[in-house]
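forwarding from the other thread:

> can someone predict this with adenosine-5'-triphosphate?

sure thing
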Amino acid sequence: MNFERELAELNEYQRAAVLDENAACIVSAKVGSGKTTVLISKVLYLHDQKKVPYEDMVVLTFTNKAAGEIRERLAAKESSLSPEQLQGFGTFHSVALHLLRDVLPVEELGYEPGFTVIEPDEEVELALQIIEEEKLQIKYKNRLKKRLEQERTLYEQGKKETRYGDDLFVLMHRLGQEKLRQNKFTFRDLLRVSNFLLRRLVAEGEKEKFHPAWIIVDEVQDSDDIQIEFMEHLVVLGAKLFAVGDPNQVIYTWRGSRSNIFYQLKERFGARELTLPINYRSSGAILAAAKCFQQNPGELTGARTRGEKLRIRRHYNAFGEAQYLAAEIRGLMESGVACREIAVFYRLQSQSEILEKVFTGESIPFEVSVKKTIQDIPVLNWFLKVLRFSCNEKDAPAGVKALADKQYGEIRSAKRAREIIESVVTEKAERGRQKSGSESSQPADEHEGLTEKMCGFAEYFAEDCLENVIVDPAYVYDYFELDRYLKPTAARYSEDREYVWNLLERMITFALEQGLGFLEGFRLFLNSSALYGVQILQKEVNLQADSVKLMTLHASKGLEFSHVYIIGVNFGLIPLRTGDFETEDEERRLFFVGMTRAKDYLELSYYTNPDQVRVAPGESRYLQMIPRELVEGGVEEVRFEKTDLQKLRKEVEKSARVQPLAMLFGGGGAGKSAEESAGEPADKPVGETAEGSAEMKHGKMPRVRHAKYGVGTITSEDETMVTAEFENYGEKQFIKAFSELEYL
Ligand SMILES: Nc1ncnc2c1ncn2[C@@H]1O[C@H](COP(=O)(O)OP(=O)(O)OP(=O)(O)O)[C@@H](O)[C@H]1O
């Protein structure tokens, strides 16, 4: 590789950053100024010129997408790279997982190497179970997830009193014990426990166990306290720090990042500060408009000419807009614009549904970036429980759920399932004790069916049979006799079978790629599937594929397209209604991030008759903040016949009930957000039952059931949406067409 040539392509600011060798350096970069470019050049510089092995670098990103991009770009430059060399490259969580698995002594804290990683929702479920069993007094249980997040720091600081004077800290203590007993980590635990063990390494002077030479951080503006502490430990262990970020792109304060982060980092690490002020991406007009939303002052220079002005469109509603966009995109395609250069951004995932339907009808190739995890697909949700218990017998709750699932498996009562699993666990423990005492005892295995399968799994697949038989999903599928447990008489059977089959294929490929034994590979996958969620099960949008990209503003971060359409710039959507100034600031930065993805053409639109509840008709004030000289010909109204809209709406409602399978395992197609697709469609759709509406009219609040959130009460309802309150999940909104709620 010719590094001189690489360096020559950088501007003076970028070069200075790449060549900087201070013990700590923070690069405060402007949007589109080449942060990713610099980060990759830095890694190459250290490796090629300074002879730092990749294994001695920890490269931390905030998303798997960013980590993937860095890996890809490195692989493109150096084809002989192996996954082992890049084990320290990834998100904070995946690097912490690697440390806990391969470097730090977790067993000294009582965990076992086969630990699993659970999603926040699973932690809440566990917490609710403890509350019930131990009769704890917890206020605002419907906001438990938020409360656990918000008050965790107080608890960790050793505070005695919770915010509401209840048993929350007792719960946190018990939750910690229970997770340890079940050998489980949450995402936050991964970093928390890593921090604890790294601190101990430092205190005990055992730095030789782990001492990276460099720590390189992308999007550093998104770091929260626990992540900063993680960086700090690595620095104390001897690593030099190089971090890049943009204070104008802080869009995750709800996760704990903060807007004064650069000042904080400079103070904490005594870092040198460099800047990258030149935006290479956007035309002059786009950049000038985006600057109206920039919150942190400072030079933002564009390298490009003024280019085309922005456009603002007014639509009757989202249905009309979708038709307009389809026609517009068709026109662009005919004029030679590649589909992959066109993107539509929206504020909420649910806004993609109408676009998907219309684009499918109009044969516009598209891909939707959907945040959907394995847990959103009922059959996989069940099968994961089966696998979790099969691979980790300490995870008794998973075993109970696998047996007591309402749709799959043996469909036992919760009580009976608990009894069975408890007896299995006791029996195993007993057998273990007898084995270590005398050799004479015989296992009295009375269990059969799924229980027997789960308990025998680890033993059955114990030897490393990866190369022989486990290249075929059928082997595991048949082992569990899944044809029996997936209920072949159900209408969804063939779809479910395909889901499971695909999951198994993925797991096997994953184990093979990792060069791991079967069991070990499966265990690692079970952790990663929670950790990576979407990425493992569902292809991210393929930026190279020639299709229009549909995504939320959040998902657009870090990407660029020649043509960008930001839709629904109405108050209530962009910006969302917020309760405080800080969140409002974040909404503004989010809009800034979206606008600055556009290279050549940016169009913004709003509705005069929005369908969503709590969305105000008319343009949001954000549109009024853009100087009119940057906008082509004022606001243009786009009209569509109302009859067309009604027909279209009916079609969307009809077709939205069938969700193409392809998109879940790659490929384009329709998809729903995690929240909206958490369960199977119910038989009786809300809005289609006369009694439902009648009850509302007479002031009674109808009760509904949702597959994931349980029983709730409708709080409001309009033509398209329905809002319901659930005891443990708070208020949730649903699109009626998806029929997820069943009236009780
Ligand atoms: N020195 C340069 N000369 C010309 N183009 C450049 C240069 N550096 C970066 N670019 C181009 O500028 C665009 C933005 O670069 P990059 O994606 O690295 O920016 P970024 O700072 O990571 O963006 P964002 O702020 O959106 O995260 C890319 O198209 C990249 O190829």
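The chain is about 45% helix and 15% strand. thats all i got for now
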